[in-house]
Amino acid sequence: MDNGSRRQFSTSIHIMALDGIVNVNSLFTFAVFLGLAWYPITDPAITLTGVAEPACVADTTMGEDLVAFHVYSFSSFLFSSLVAFALKQAIWIGQGGGKVRSVPMTIHVNTAALRAGILVSAAGSVFGCVFLMLALVDLVQIKLGTLACRSFHSLAAIVPLVILVPFALVVFVATIFSFRCLCFIIFVLSVFSSISFVIWSQYTGFFDFQNQVTLQNQNQFINILSFPSAWNHLSFPTGPPPKFLKIALFVKKWPHKHRAGGLERHALTLHLALAQRGHELHIFTTSSLNPSFPSFPIGTLYFHLSKPTAAGYLDQAVVWKQFQHQNSTGKPFDVIHTESVGLMHTRSRNLTNLAVTWHGIAYESIHSDIIQELLRTPEEPLAFSLTERAMKVVEEVKFFPHYAHHVATSDHVGEVLKRIYMIPEERVHIILNGVDEEIFKPNAAKGKDFKKKFGIPQSKTLVLGIAGRLVKDKGHPLMFEALMQMLKENDTFRETAIILVAGDGPWSDRYKDLGATVLVLGTLEPAQLASFYNAIDIFVNPTLRAQGLDHTLLEAMLSGKPLMATRLASITGSVIVGTEMGYTFSPTVASLKGTLYRVWHDGRVVLERKGQLARQRGLELFTATKMAAAYERLFLCISNDEENRDSYCTYQPSFQ
Ligand SMILES: *[C@@H]1O[C@H](CO)[C@@H](O)[C@H](O)[C@H]1NC(C)=O
Ligand SMILES: *[C@@H]1O[C@H](CO)[C@@H](O)[C@H](O)[C@H]1NC(C)=O
Ligand SMILES: *[C@@H]1O[C@H](CO)[C@@H](O)[C@H](O)[C@H]1NC(C)=O
């Protein structure tokens, strides 16, 4: 071969190679572009394998990664194509302006530059493929369950992918240095591209919508009444309700200002949210001595007051009469909700459209009794006989079945109701408490102002926060003892830490005795309380009362603060489920002290990180919106609406 024909031969190979790159890349660029436009919904509840356990559901970062990788892949392919196209153009021009010649031409192209250009273009393709592979891995995990939970389908899809693609890329890179094999490379690339395109279209369901729909039909329909975990994990539609319900609520006391207990706050948050969504709420409650009964600017909220009995309960005969009157005039009630025993079991019998929310059951209280008994000093009288409490449990086990549907406010209580109280599973539903996410949210400026207002010096590197009623069974004697010992024994702790105590009660004066390191703030209004959470580094709740789900913990979480609380089953089972969002301790002075020292050692940076995770979990589970949506669905499902019962009681995320 003489020099001219050799050059001509290699030029035609170059053109073939470039043609190949341009063709393959165009296909890829188009495919990836479509993939972006058709970006699959990453709603955690929508996996092809149905509602998976939370560990198997991909989080939002995976969805974000998917989009990012898609975009990188798109850019790489586009880059590669454009470079290849430019080179081709250069050769074309070098060959004589694109005119077809019958006589072979000697052309003058800088071969080194050409080779470099092809290398750059090839590198673009390699990166494009790698990013596409990563995007596919994310996509598979979102659709079929994460690798972390060893989903068989995910593994079956990902293993061939991560073997074939790198293999093909190695072949590609190895051969790119020998130009004679370029034709072969192009062949390999096209095979690979078709395979990936097929895989890609399979998982995005780009070509077979039909297939995807049947898959969902098979797997995604679940009977919501038998859903075993907290409903807060499900995503309900956020649009207007499919139907406006007439709801009766029985609650012993409607909250007054900020001195409400957990049950009343739950009643307020939930039912205001439901009324705001357009449901007609009739609230049967006791008239309060306070003449300024709160008024609400919501047209669908009606109050029916009655005088409490001597024991402070709702007068059952009176409220039942009021209820019957409301039921017979106008529309009958769709659903009845009672907060704890607001409506007693003697009246709730035979009502199928009724749900009761438990904010503390006797079985849980036994744990509190044991703790209190262990902490009791010899001089103190016995608070509650444990045998008496056990009999209370037996009593509850007997009358609880007279309520049709039970809502447990924590995973632990749900388990106890099913196992120990022997209530059928399809009548026990777990809906965790929620708090107003508009009030409780991170706001550094508010926190700073709060610190300034109360004169908290910069030298304090750890601000501990305590809130709630300052009474014995909220663990304040324990907290007081632990703090007193620590302030006495360790000067550094005293100089660098400060404890803010929000709330009122018998222990507020004792805390004041501890000196300047403990700042007692008194009762705070909700707005002030929100600032309080923003001013602290960690929220400490030493409660000994194993009842319901404490609202203060949820408020602190939504404010982005880590938690430290007593190791009670409802708390460790639903709120502080791991060390990544806080600390738990046994209700003893030694354990409390040890944990406080650990928090102090960990310091602000660690606490901030835990706080962010706490907020993430809070937003996922503990918002008032989430809670109201879950109750709304429960009420729709158990209301006497035979016609739509199936659709209300079925969970099918993709068609909502
Ligand atoms: C309420 O009224 C409806 C319709 O009249 C009736 O079927 C239902 O039994 C009533 N509910 C109660 C608890 O009385
Ligand atoms: C509930 O139904 C049972 C039988 O089904 C009946 O004996 C009982 O009297 C009813 N109770 C009420 C309060 O209506
Ligand atoms: C306080 O505690 C820290 C950590 O436990 C320790 O390093 C320090 O020496 C203690 N200071 C005093 C005065 O005990």
Automatic annotation (TrEMBL):
The keyword Iron does not apply. InterPro entries: Glyco_trans_4-like_N. Gene3D superfamilies: Glycogen Phosphorylase B. Residues 261-438 form the Glycosyltransferase subfamily 4-like N-terminal domain. The chain crosses the membrane at residues 21-41, 69-91, 112-137, 157-177, 184-203. It comes from the Eukaryota. Keywords: Membrane, Transmembrane, Transmembrane helix. The keyword Membrane applies. PANTHER family: GLYCOSYLTRANSFERASE, GLYCOSYLTRANSFERASE FAMILY 4 PROTEIN. This is Glycosyltransferase subfamily 4-like N-terminal domain-containing protein. It comes from Vitis vinifera.
